[in-house]
Amino acid sequence: MAQDAKIEAPAMTAAEKEAAKKIYFERCAGCHGVLRKGATGKNLEPHWSKVEKDGKKTEGGTLALGTGRLERIIGYGTDGGMVNFDDILTKEELNLMARYIQNTPDVPPEFSLKDQLDSWNVIVPVDKRPTKQMNKINLSNVFSVTLRDTGEVALIDGDTKEIKSIVKTGYAVHISRLSASGRYVYVIGRDGRVSLIDLWMETPAVVAEVKIAFDARSIDTSKFKGFEDKYAIAGGYWPPQYTIMEGDTLKPLKVVSTRGVTVDGDYHPEPRVASIVSSFIKPEWVVNIKETGQILLVDYTDIENLKTTTIGSAKFLHDGGWDASKRYFLVAANASNKIAAVDTKKGTLAALVDVAKIPHPGRGANFTHPKYGPVWATGHLGADVVTLISTPSENAKHKQFKQYNWKVVQEVKHVPGNLFVKTHPVSKHLWADSAQNPEKDLAESVTVWDLADLSKPKAVLHVAKDAGLPETKAVKRAVHPEYSKDGKEVWISLWGGKTDQSAIVVYDDATLKVKKVITDPKMITPTGKFNVYNTQHDIY
Fold first, then answer.
1. Which of the residues 32, 268, 414, 429 is marked catalytic?
2. Phi, psi (rounded to 5 degrees) for 490
3. In this structure, which topology does domain 110-137+169-312 adopt according to CATH?
4. pLDDT (tens digit per residue) in 434-489
5. Is 318 a catalytic residue?
6. CATH, domain range 14-100
7. One Pfam annotation, family name (predicted)?
8. Residue 1 pLDDT
9. Catalytic residue at 82?
10. Dist. CA 284–CA 278, nearest whole Å
11. C-beta separation of 227 from 244 below 8 A
12. What is the DSSP letter of 250?
Protein backbone atom coordinates (compact mmCIF):
# COMPACT_ATOMS: atom_id res chain seq x y z
CA MET A 1 0.00 0.00 0.00
CA ALA A 2 2.12 2.92 -1.23
CA GLN A 3 1.15 5.96 0.79
CA ASP A 4 0.81 9.65 -0.04
CA ALA A 5 3.00 11.52 2.45
CA LYS A 6 0.53 14.44 2.32
CA ILE A 7 -2.22 12.47 4.06
CA GLU A 8 -2.78 14.01 7.47
CA ALA A 9 -3.88 12.24 10.63
CA PRO A 10 -7.41 12.97 11.89
CA ALA A 11 -7.57 15.74 14.48
CA MET A 12 -8.14 14.70 18.10
CA THR A 13 -8.67 16.71 21.28
CA ALA A 14 -6.45 16.09 24.32
CA ALA A 15 -9.39 14.43 26.10
CA GLU A 16 -10.03 12.13 23.13
CA LYS A 17 -6.37 11.10 23.03
CA GLU A 18 -6.36 10.26 26.72
CA ALA A 19 -9.53 8.16 26.40
CA ALA A 20 -8.15 6.37 23.34
CA LYS A 21 -4.79 5.77 25.01
CA LYS A 22 -6.54 4.01 27.90
CA ILE A 23 -8.57 1.78 25.55
CA TYR A 24 -5.48 1.00 23.49
CA PHE A 25 -3.52 -0.08 26.58
CA GLU A 26 -6.36 -2.25 27.89
CA ARG A 27 -7.45 -3.84 24.62
CA CYS A 28 -4.81 -3.49 21.90
CA ALA A 29 -1.23 -3.09 23.15
CA GLY A 30 -0.81 -6.76 24.02
CA CYS A 31 -0.95 -7.84 20.37
CA HIS A 32 0.16 -4.70 18.54
CA GLY A 33 2.78 -3.31 20.96
CA VAL A 34 2.98 -0.05 22.89
CA LEU A 35 4.84 1.56 19.97
CA ARG A 36 2.38 -0.15 17.55
CA LYS A 37 5.13 -1.94 15.62
CA GLY A 38 3.17 -5.20 15.71
CA ALA A 39 3.84 -8.76 16.90
CA THR A 40 0.92 -11.17 17.14
CA GLY A 41 -1.14 -8.35 15.65
CA LYS A 42 -0.36 -6.12 12.66
CA ASN A 43 1.84 -3.02 12.64
CA LEU A 44 -0.44 -0.05 13.47
CA GLU A 45 1.90 2.85 12.78
CA PRO A 46 0.54 5.65 10.56
CA HIS A 47 3.20 4.77 8.01
CA TRP A 48 5.68 1.91 7.87
CA SER A 49 8.05 0.41 5.36
CA LYS A 50 10.41 -2.53 5.32
CA VAL A 51 12.89 -4.08 2.94
CA GLU A 52 12.44 -7.81 2.36
CA LYS A 53 15.37 -10.22 2.02
CA ASP A 54 15.03 -10.10 -1.76
CA GLY A 55 15.43 -6.32 -1.67
CA LYS A 56 11.78 -5.57 -2.39
CA LYS A 57 10.37 -2.67 -0.38
CA THR A 58 6.93 -3.01 1.20
CA GLU A 59 4.98 -0.06 2.55
CA GLY A 60 1.77 0.36 4.49
CA GLY A 61 0.17 2.09 7.43
CA THR A 62 -3.07 3.07 9.10
CA LEU A 63 -3.28 6.41 7.28
CA ALA A 64 -3.63 4.62 3.96
CA LEU A 65 -6.53 2.55 5.30
CA GLY A 66 -8.52 5.55 6.51
CA THR A 67 -11.02 5.99 9.32
CA GLY A 68 -13.99 4.16 7.77
CA ARG A 69 -12.10 1.00 6.90
CA LEU A 70 -10.30 0.95 10.25
CA GLU A 71 -13.65 1.23 12.04
CA ARG A 72 -14.89 -1.84 10.18
CA ILE A 73 -11.72 -3.85 10.90
CA ILE A 74 -11.84 -3.00 14.62
CA GLY A 75 -15.58 -3.63 14.81
CA TYR A 76 -15.80 -6.90 12.90
CA GLY A 77 -12.38 -8.41 13.59
CA THR A 78 -10.35 -10.46 11.12
CA ASP A 79 -9.96 -14.08 10.15
CA GLY A 80 -6.36 -13.87 11.41
CA GLY A 81 -7.54 -14.13 15.01
CA MET A 82 -8.41 -10.54 15.92
CA VAL A 83 -11.61 -10.48 17.92
CA ASN A 84 -14.56 -8.28 16.92
CA PHE A 85 -14.94 -5.24 19.16
CA ASP A 86 -18.43 -4.18 18.13
CA ASP A 87 -19.86 -5.79 21.28
CA ILE A 88 -17.09 -4.37 23.50
CA LEU A 89 -16.71 -0.79 22.24
CA THR A 90 -19.45 1.70 21.37
CA LYS A 91 -19.73 3.15 17.87
CA GLU A 92 -18.20 6.35 19.19
CA GLU A 93 -15.27 4.39 20.68
CA LEU A 94 -14.73 2.49 17.43
CA ASN A 95 -14.46 5.82 15.62
CA LEU A 96 -12.19 7.16 18.35
CA MET A 97 -9.77 4.21 18.04
CA ALA A 98 -9.80 4.36 14.22
CA ARG A 99 -8.67 7.98 14.43
CA TYR A 100 -6.20 7.39 17.27
CA ILE A 101 -4.15 4.74 15.48
CA GLN A 102 -3.68 7.09 12.52
CA ASN A 103 -1.83 9.48 14.83
CA THR A 104 1.84 9.09 15.77
CA PRO A 105 2.28 6.72 18.75
CA ASP A 106 3.27 8.20 22.08
CA VAL A 107 6.50 6.91 23.65
CA PRO A 108 5.86 6.13 27.34
CA PRO A 109 8.44 6.93 30.04
CA GLU A 110 10.95 4.45 31.44
CA PHE A 111 10.53 2.71 34.81
CA SER A 112 13.75 2.32 36.80
CA LEU A 113 14.80 0.23 39.80
CA LYS A 114 14.23 3.31 41.97
CA ASP A 115 10.71 3.70 40.56
CA GLN A 116 10.05 0.05 41.39
CA LEU A 117 11.41 0.38 44.92
CA ASP A 118 9.23 3.46 45.44
CA SER A 119 6.17 1.35 44.56
CA TRP A 120 7.19 -1.61 46.72
CA ASN A 121 4.86 -2.34 49.66
CA VAL A 122 5.15 -5.14 52.20
CA ILE A 123 1.66 -5.32 53.68
CA VAL A 124 2.38 -8.20 56.08
CA PRO A 125 6.08 -8.62 57.03
CA VAL A 126 7.49 -12.13 56.82
CA ASP A 127 7.86 -12.44 60.61
CA LYS A 128 4.18 -11.53 61.07
CA ARG A 129 2.90 -14.21 58.72
CA PRO A 130 1.62 -17.62 59.84
CA THR A 131 4.13 -20.40 60.49
CA LYS A 132 1.57 -23.01 59.40
CA GLN A 133 -1.65 -23.15 57.39
CA MET A 134 -4.36 -21.30 59.34
CA ASN A 135 -7.36 -22.37 57.25
CA LYS A 136 -8.95 -25.70 56.41
CA ILE A 137 -8.92 -25.25 52.62
CA ASN A 138 -7.47 -28.04 50.49
CA LEU A 139 -4.82 -25.70 49.09
CA SER A 140 -3.61 -28.15 46.46
CA ASN A 141 -6.99 -27.93 44.72
CA VAL A 142 -7.53 -24.18 44.91
CA PHE A 143 -8.10 -22.29 41.65
CA SER A 144 -6.67 -18.79 41.24
CA VAL A 145 -9.13 -17.11 38.85
CA THR A 146 -8.47 -13.84 37.03
CA LEU A 147 -11.38 -11.38 37.18
CA ARG A 148 -10.13 -9.36 34.25
CA ASP A 149 -11.99 -6.08 34.26
CA THR A 150 -12.16 -5.53 38.04
CA GLY A 151 -8.44 -6.05 38.68
CA GLU A 152 -9.02 -8.91 41.09
CA VAL A 153 -8.26 -12.59 41.62
CA ALA A 154 -10.86 -14.99 43.03
CA LEU A 155 -9.53 -17.94 45.03
CA ILE A 156 -12.02 -20.77 44.64
CA ASP A 157 -12.01 -24.03 46.61
CA GLY A 158 -11.92 -26.80 44.01
CA ASP A 159 -13.54 -29.29 46.39
CA THR A 160 -16.51 -27.20 47.57
CA LYS A 161 -16.65 -24.78 44.59
CA GLU A 162 -16.89 -21.89 47.09
CA ILE A 163 -15.20 -18.53 46.56
CA LYS A 164 -12.88 -18.32 49.57
CA SER A 165 -11.40 -14.90 48.89
CA ILE A 166 -11.43 -12.14 46.28
CA VAL A 167 -8.24 -10.09 46.42
CA LYS A 168 -7.41 -6.80 44.75
CA THR A 169 -4.54 -7.14 42.27
CA GLY A 170 -3.32 -5.45 39.12
CA TYR A 171 -5.57 -4.79 36.13
CA ALA A 172 -6.32 -7.84 33.96
CA VAL A 173 -4.07 -10.34 35.70
CA HIS A 174 -2.42 -12.34 32.95
CA ILE A 175 -1.16 -15.36 34.88
CA SER A 176 -0.90 -16.87 38.34
CA ARG A 177 2.25 -18.77 39.28
CA LEU A 178 3.08 -20.76 42.41
CA SER A 179 6.09 -20.75 44.68
CA ALA A 180 8.00 -24.03 44.78
CA SER A 181 6.50 -24.72 48.22
CA GLY A 182 2.94 -24.13 47.02
CA ARG A 183 2.35 -21.53 49.74
CA TYR A 184 2.47 -18.32 47.70
CA VAL A 185 0.57 -17.31 44.58
CA TYR A 186 2.29 -14.70 42.41
CA VAL A 187 0.08 -12.76 40.01
CA ILE A 188 0.93 -10.01 37.55
CA GLY A 189 -1.49 -7.57 35.96
CA ARG A 190 -1.23 -5.94 32.58
CA ASP A 191 -0.52 -2.70 34.42
CA GLY A 192 2.75 -4.23 35.70
CA ARG A 193 1.58 -4.68 39.26
CA VAL A 194 2.80 -7.85 41.02
CA SER A 195 0.82 -9.19 43.97
CA LEU A 196 1.98 -11.90 46.39
CA ILE A 197 -0.87 -13.92 47.93
CA ASP A 198 -0.26 -16.00 51.07
CA LEU A 199 -2.49 -19.09 51.03
CA TRP A 200 -1.63 -19.97 54.64
CA MET A 201 -3.53 -17.02 56.11
CA GLU A 202 -6.93 -17.61 57.70
CA THR A 203 -8.36 -15.77 54.71
CA PRO A 204 -5.78 -15.83 51.90
CA ALA A 205 -4.73 -12.28 51.09
CA VAL A 206 -2.08 -10.12 49.43
CA VAL A 207 0.98 -9.72 51.70
CA ALA A 208 3.26 -7.76 49.36
CA GLU A 209 3.07 -5.87 46.07
CA VAL A 210 5.26 -3.96 43.65
CA LYS A 211 4.96 -2.34 40.23
CA ILE A 212 7.69 -3.50 37.85
CA ALA A 213 6.50 -1.90 34.59
CA PHE A 214 3.67 0.03 32.96
CA ASP A 215 2.65 -3.01 30.92
CA ALA A 216 3.56 -6.62 31.72
CA ARG A 217 2.55 -10.26 31.26
CA SER A 218 4.92 -12.78 32.87
CA ILE A 219 6.12 -13.95 36.26
CA ASP A 220 7.67 -17.05 37.80
CA THR A 221 9.72 -18.16 40.80
CA SER A 222 12.93 -20.04 41.58
CA LYS A 223 12.14 -23.76 41.77
CA PHE A 224 15.51 -25.52 41.71
CA LYS A 225 16.51 -27.38 44.88
CA GLY A 226 18.07 -25.00 47.40
CA PHE A 227 16.42 -21.93 45.85
CA GLU A 228 12.77 -22.72 46.67
CA ASP A 229 10.80 -19.47 47.25
CA LYS A 230 14.05 -17.41 47.23
CA TYR A 231 13.52 -15.38 44.07
CA ALA A 232 10.78 -14.23 41.73
CA ILE A 233 11.19 -12.82 38.24
CA ALA A 234 8.73 -10.66 36.30
CA GLY A 235 8.93 -9.42 32.71
CA GLY A 236 7.79 -6.11 31.28
CA TYR A 237 6.19 -5.26 27.96
CA TRP A 238 6.96 -1.61 28.61
CA PRO A 239 9.65 -0.82 29.43
CA PRO A 240 11.12 -3.92 27.79
CA GLN A 241 13.00 -5.41 30.74
CA TYR A 242 12.78 -8.00 33.49
CA THR A 243 13.09 -7.63 37.25
CA ILE A 244 14.46 -10.13 39.79
CA MET A 245 12.87 -9.83 43.25
CA GLU A 246 13.02 -11.38 46.69
CA GLY A 247 10.61 -14.31 46.65
CA ASP A 248 8.87 -13.63 49.97
CA THR A 249 8.75 -9.80 49.93
CA LEU A 250 8.88 -8.83 46.21
CA LYS A 251 11.70 -6.37 46.92
CA PRO A 252 13.22 -5.51 43.50
CA LEU A 253 16.88 -6.55 43.39
CA LYS A 254 17.95 -6.24 39.74
CA VAL A 255 16.53 -4.84 36.51
CA VAL A 256 17.80 -6.11 33.14
CA SER A 257 16.93 -4.45 29.83
CA THR A 258 15.97 -6.64 26.85
CA ARG A 259 16.44 -4.02 24.13
CA GLY A 260 18.69 -5.31 21.40
CA VAL A 261 19.09 -6.98 18.04
CA THR A 262 16.61 -9.42 16.52
CA VAL A 263 17.47 -12.83 15.08
CA ASP A 264 17.44 -11.07 11.69
CA GLY A 265 20.16 -8.66 12.81
CA ASP A 266 17.98 -5.55 13.15
CA TYR A 267 17.80 -3.35 16.25
CA HIS A 268 14.38 -3.25 17.94
CA PRO A 269 13.39 -0.60 20.50
CA GLU A 270 10.59 -2.63 22.11
CA PRO A 271 11.59 -6.30 22.62
CA ARG A 272 8.94 -7.28 25.17
CA VAL A 273 9.35 -10.07 27.71
CA ALA A 274 6.78 -12.70 26.82
CA SER A 275 6.63 -15.95 28.80
CA ILE A 276 8.96 -16.88 31.64
CA VAL A 277 9.25 -20.40 33.08
CA SER A 278 11.39 -21.88 35.81
CA SER A 279 13.56 -24.90 35.05
CA PHE A 280 13.28 -27.98 37.26
CA ILE A 281 16.70 -29.35 36.27
CA LYS A 282 18.90 -26.24 36.60
CA PRO A 283 18.82 -23.00 38.64
CA GLU A 284 17.65 -21.12 35.56
CA TRP A 285 14.72 -19.24 34.15
CA VAL A 286 13.73 -19.49 30.49
CA VAL A 287 12.96 -15.90 29.43
CA ASN A 288 11.40 -15.44 25.99
CA ILE A 289 11.89 -12.08 24.25
CA LYS A 290 9.03 -11.48 21.85
CA GLU A 291 10.25 -9.10 19.15
CA THR A 292 13.88 -10.24 18.93
CA GLY A 293 13.17 -13.98 18.86
CA GLN A 294 15.89 -14.50 21.47
CA ILE A 295 15.42 -17.06 24.26
CA LEU A 296 17.42 -16.31 27.41
CA LEU A 297 18.49 -18.92 29.96
CA VAL A 298 19.08 -16.81 33.07
CA ASP A 299 21.19 -18.46 35.80
CA TYR A 300 20.04 -17.15 39.19
CA THR A 301 22.75 -18.70 41.38
CA ASP A 302 24.53 -15.34 41.52
CA ILE A 303 22.30 -12.45 40.52
CA GLU A 304 25.04 -9.86 41.17
CA ASN A 305 27.15 -11.53 38.46
CA LEU A 306 24.33 -12.68 36.23
CA LYS A 307 25.11 -15.33 33.64
CA THR A 308 22.82 -15.58 30.63
CA THR A 309 22.78 -17.95 27.66
CA THR A 310 21.19 -16.40 24.55
CA ILE A 311 19.54 -18.74 22.05
CA GLY A 312 18.30 -17.42 18.72
CA SER A 313 14.99 -18.84 17.49
CA ALA A 314 12.31 -16.92 15.57
CA LYS A 315 10.11 -13.83 15.92
CA PHE A 316 7.70 -13.23 17.67
CA LEU A 317 7.95 -15.35 20.79
CA HIS A 318 4.84 -15.65 22.92
CA ASP A 319 3.74 -18.45 25.25
CA GLY A 320 4.61 -22.10 25.68
CA GLY A 321 5.16 -25.00 28.04
CA TRP A 322 7.29 -27.98 29.01
CA ASP A 323 7.23 -31.35 27.31
CA ALA A 324 6.33 -34.34 29.49
CA SER A 325 9.97 -34.85 30.59
CA LYS A 326 10.34 -31.15 31.60
CA ARG A 327 13.68 -31.05 29.80
CA TYR A 328 12.43 -29.28 26.68
CA PHE A 329 10.56 -25.99 26.63
CA LEU A 330 8.38 -25.35 23.57
CA VAL A 331 7.36 -21.78 22.78
CA ALA A 332 5.31 -20.27 19.96
CA ALA A 333 6.97 -17.77 17.64
CA ASN A 334 3.44 -16.95 16.58
CA ALA A 335 3.92 -14.31 13.87
CA SER A 336 6.55 -16.58 12.28
CA ASN A 337 4.24 -19.63 12.43
CA LYS A 338 6.87 -21.69 14.23
CA ILE A 339 7.38 -23.52 17.51
CA ALA A 340 10.86 -23.22 19.04
CA ALA A 341 12.05 -26.03 21.31
CA VAL A 342 14.87 -25.42 23.81
CA ASP A 343 16.93 -28.20 25.34
CA THR A 344 17.42 -26.78 28.84
CA LYS A 345 19.81 -29.60 29.78
CA LYS A 346 22.27 -28.68 26.99
CA GLY A 347 21.33 -25.01 26.81
CA THR A 348 20.74 -25.13 23.05
CA LEU A 349 17.96 -24.84 20.49
CA ALA A 350 16.65 -28.37 19.93
CA ALA A 351 14.34 -27.61 17.01
CA LEU A 352 12.44 -24.94 15.10
CA VAL A 353 9.22 -26.49 13.85
CA ASP A 354 7.01 -24.99 11.12
CA VAL A 355 3.33 -25.02 12.09
CA ALA A 356 0.05 -23.47 10.94
CA LYS A 357 -0.88 -19.79 11.21
CA ILE A 358 -0.42 -17.99 14.56
CA PRO A 359 0.17 -20.79 17.07
CA HIS A 360 -1.13 -19.95 20.55
CA PRO A 361 -0.53 -22.87 22.92
CA GLY A 362 -0.90 -21.37 26.37
CA ARG A 363 1.13 -24.05 28.13
CA GLY A 364 0.22 -26.63 25.50
CA ALA A 365 -0.83 -30.21 26.24
CA ASN A 366 1.21 -33.40 26.68
CA PHE A 367 -0.03 -36.92 26.01
CA THR A 368 1.01 -40.21 24.44
CA HIS A 369 -0.34 -40.60 20.93
CA PRO A 370 -1.37 -44.18 20.01
CA LYS A 371 0.68 -44.03 16.79
CA TYR A 372 3.41 -41.41 17.38
CA GLY A 373 4.20 -41.70 21.10
CA PRO A 374 4.78 -38.62 23.32
CA VAL A 375 3.47 -35.43 21.72
CA TRP A 376 2.93 -31.81 22.69
CA ALA A 377 -0.06 -29.93 21.30
CA THR A 378 -0.68 -26.33 20.33
CA GLY A 379 -3.78 -24.63 18.99
CA HIS A 380 -3.87 -21.67 16.58
CA LEU A 381 -5.50 -18.28 16.42
CA GLY A 382 -5.35 -18.14 12.63
CA ALA A 383 -5.77 -21.76 11.52
CA ASP A 384 -8.40 -24.48 11.88
CA VAL A 385 -6.16 -27.16 13.42
CA VAL A 386 -4.57 -28.31 16.66
CA THR A 387 -0.97 -29.25 15.84
CA LEU A 388 0.72 -32.28 17.45
CA ILE A 389 4.55 -32.29 17.65
CA SER A 390 6.49 -35.42 18.58
CA THR A 391 8.75 -34.90 21.62
CA PRO A 392 11.78 -36.98 22.73
CA SER A 393 11.55 -39.49 25.56
CA GLU A 394 14.20 -41.37 27.54
CA ASN A 395 11.69 -44.12 28.28
CA ALA A 396 12.87 -47.35 26.62
CA LYS A 397 9.35 -48.24 25.49
CA HIS A 398 9.25 -45.04 23.41
CA LYS A 399 12.41 -45.79 21.38
CA GLN A 400 10.41 -46.64 18.25
CA PHE A 401 8.99 -43.10 18.17
CA LYS A 402 12.39 -41.38 17.94
CA GLN A 403 12.06 -41.11 14.16
CA TYR A 404 9.19 -38.64 14.61
CA ASN A 405 10.88 -36.31 17.12
CA TRP A 406 10.37 -32.59 16.44
CA LYS A 407 8.09 -33.31 13.49
CA VAL A 408 4.45 -32.33 13.11
CA VAL A 409 2.84 -35.76 13.25
CA GLN A 410 -0.82 -34.75 13.05
CA GLU A 411 -3.06 -31.74 12.53
CA VAL A 412 -6.32 -32.30 14.37
CA LYS A 413 -9.25 -30.53 12.72
CA HIS A 414 -10.58 -27.64 14.83
CA VAL A 415 -11.69 -24.03 14.15
CA PRO A 416 -9.67 -20.77 14.14
CA GLY A 417 -9.60 -18.57 17.22
CA ASN A 418 -8.23 -21.14 19.66
CA LEU A 419 -6.40 -19.73 22.69
CA PHE A 420 -5.79 -22.76 24.93
CA VAL A 421 -5.54 -26.54 24.72
CA LYS A 422 -5.39 -28.79 27.77
CA THR A 423 -5.25 -32.36 28.98
CA HIS A 424 -4.11 -34.19 32.14
CA PRO A 425 -2.03 -37.34 32.75
CA VAL A 426 -5.07 -39.29 33.98
CA SER A 427 -7.48 -37.94 31.37
CA LYS A 428 -8.53 -39.61 28.13
CA HIS A 429 -9.54 -36.29 26.58
CA LEU A 430 -8.06 -33.23 24.88
CA TRP A 431 -9.95 -29.94 25.35
CA ALA A 432 -9.66 -26.78 23.23
CA ASP A 433 -11.52 -23.49 23.31
CA SER A 434 -12.28 -21.20 20.34
CA ALA A 435 -12.78 -17.98 22.27
CA GLN A 436 -11.43 -15.69 19.53
CA ASN A 437 -13.58 -17.12 16.75
CA PRO A 438 -15.83 -14.45 15.17
CA GLU A 439 -18.85 -16.82 15.20
CA LYS A 440 -20.81 -16.36 18.45
CA ASP A 441 -21.74 -20.05 18.85
CA LEU A 442 -18.14 -21.16 18.33
CA ALA A 443 -16.72 -18.51 20.68
CA GLU A 444 -19.13 -19.72 23.35
CA SER A 445 -18.19 -23.40 22.92
CA VAL A 446 -15.31 -25.79 23.58
CA THR A 447 -14.32 -28.92 21.66
CA VAL A 448 -13.35 -32.26 23.21
CA TRP A 449 -11.52 -35.15 21.52
CA ASP A 450 -10.96 -38.72 22.64
CA LEU A 451 -7.17 -39.20 22.77
CA ALA A 452 -7.60 -42.69 21.33
CA ASP A 453 -9.35 -41.30 18.22
CA LEU A 454 -8.46 -37.77 17.14
CA SER A 455 -10.04 -38.10 13.70
CA LYS A 456 -13.12 -36.15 14.79
CA PRO A 457 -14.34 -34.36 17.93
CA LYS A 458 -16.05 -36.45 20.55
CA ALA A 459 -18.20 -33.47 21.52
CA VAL A 460 -18.64 -29.74 21.01
CA LEU A 461 -19.97 -28.31 24.27
CA HIS A 462 -21.90 -25.03 24.15
CA VAL A 463 -20.71 -23.68 27.48
CA ALA A 464 -22.87 -20.55 27.41
CA LYS A 465 -26.05 -22.61 27.01
CA ASP A 466 -24.90 -25.15 29.58
CA ALA A 467 -24.41 -22.33 32.10
CA GLY A 468 -28.09 -21.38 31.93
CA LEU A 469 -27.36 -17.65 32.19
CA PRO A 470 -29.65 -14.98 30.72
CA GLU A 471 -29.22 -14.56 26.97
CA THR A 472 -27.43 -11.36 25.91
CA LYS A 473 -26.31 -9.85 22.63
CA ALA A 474 -22.69 -9.74 23.82
CA VAL A 475 -20.58 -12.86 23.27
CA LYS A 476 -19.88 -14.91 26.40
CA ARG A 477 -16.51 -16.36 25.44
CA ALA A 478 -15.76 -19.85 26.72
CA VAL A 479 -12.07 -19.74 27.52
CA HIS A 480 -9.17 -21.53 29.22
CA PRO A 481 -9.94 -25.15 30.12
CA GLU A 482 -8.23 -26.04 33.42
CA TYR A 483 -8.19 -29.41 35.18
CA SER A 484 -8.68 -30.09 38.86
CA LYS A 485 -5.74 -31.62 40.72
CA ASP A 486 -7.07 -35.17 40.29
CA GLY A 487 -7.80 -34.66 36.59
CA LYS A 488 -11.48 -35.54 36.99
CA GLU A 489 -12.94 -32.08 36.37
CA VAL A 490 -12.43 -29.40 33.73
CA TRP A 491 -13.24 -25.78 34.57
CA ILE A 492 -14.20 -23.37 31.76
CA SER A 493 -14.50 -19.59 32.19
CA LEU A 494 -17.51 -17.97 30.61
CA TRP A 495 -16.24 -14.46 29.93
CA GLY A 496 -19.07 -11.99 29.42
CA GLY A 497 -19.12 -8.22 29.32
CA LYS A 498 -18.58 -5.98 32.34
CA THR A 499 -22.28 -5.68 32.97
CA ASP A 500 -23.17 -9.28 32.09
CA GLN A 501 -23.44 -12.18 34.47
CA SER A 502 -20.36 -14.37 34.09
CA ALA A 503 -19.64 -17.87 35.33
CA ILE A 504 -17.27 -20.80 35.57
CA VAL A 505 -18.75 -24.02 34.25
CA VAL A 506 -17.34 -27.23 35.75
CA TYR A 507 -17.54 -30.38 33.64
CA ASP A 508 -17.04 -34.00 34.58
CA ASP A 509 -14.11 -35.05 32.38
CA ALA A 510 -15.34 -38.64 32.10
CA THR A 511 -18.98 -37.96 31.16
CA LEU A 512 -18.63 -34.40 29.72
CA LYS A 513 -21.68 -33.44 31.78
CA VAL A 514 -22.00 -30.22 33.79
CA LYS A 515 -21.24 -30.75 37.48
CA LYS A 516 -21.51 -27.17 38.71
CA VAL A 517 -22.03 -23.63 37.50
CA ILE A 518 -20.13 -21.21 39.73
CA THR A 519 -21.53 -17.70 39.52
CA ASP A 520 -21.62 -14.72 41.83
CA PRO A 521 -22.29 -10.97 41.40
CA LYS A 522 -18.70 -10.33 42.50
CA MET A 523 -17.23 -12.68 39.88
CA ILE A 524 -16.96 -10.31 36.92
CA THR A 525 -15.27 -11.24 33.62
CA PRO A 526 -13.43 -14.42 34.71
CA THR A 527 -10.71 -15.48 32.26
CA GLY A 528 -7.62 -17.53 33.21
CA LYS A 529 -7.87 -20.13 35.98
CA PHE A 530 -4.85 -21.77 37.56
CA ASN A 531 -5.12 -24.88 39.71
CA VAL A 532 -2.53 -24.56 42.48
CA TYR A 533 -1.12 -28.09 42.25
CA ASN A 534 -1.09 -28.33 38.46
CA THR A 535 0.54 -24.90 38.15
CA GLN A 536 3.08 -25.64 40.88
CA HIS A 537 4.18 -28.83 39.12
CA ASP A 538 3.60 -27.75 35.49
CA ILE A 539 1.06 -30.46 34.77
CA TYR A 540 -0.68 -30.10 31.45
1. 32
2. -125, 125
3. Methanol Dehydrogenase; Chain A (2.140.10)
4. 999 989 999 999 999 999 999 999 999 999 999 999 888 789 999 999 999 999 99
5. yes
6. 1.10.760.10
7. Cytochrome_CBB3
8. 39
9. yes
10. 6
11. no
12. -
